[in-house]
Amino acid sequence: MINSLCGDCKLCVNACPGNAIIDSLDPKKSYNPKKCANFLINRKKEGHPFACGMCLYICPYGNKNTYNLKK
Ligand code: SF4
Ligand code: SF4
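A: This is the predicted complex of the input protein with iron/sulfur cluster.
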């Protein structure tokens, strides 16, 4: 298992509009690709772009400028 760098952070868990992320150290449990895909498919049916990426956007490790973290 890879080491988690998340610590107490739960930003992506709380931000995911598809409820596809849960607070678990096990990567096989923490991300549910079916829920993510279902959210995107439903968004597309509603006429929205087939895109999300909120989890990547909000993560401090992927957005160092916003969260002012050192590299
Ligand atoms: S892309 Fe969107 S729906 Fe999928 S896991 Fe990330 S935040 Fe959730
Ligand atoms: S937003 Fe990034 S650092 Fe925070 S819990 Fe999610 S993956 Fe971990």
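DSSP finds five helices and no strands in the chain. The first helix runs from residue 11 to 15.
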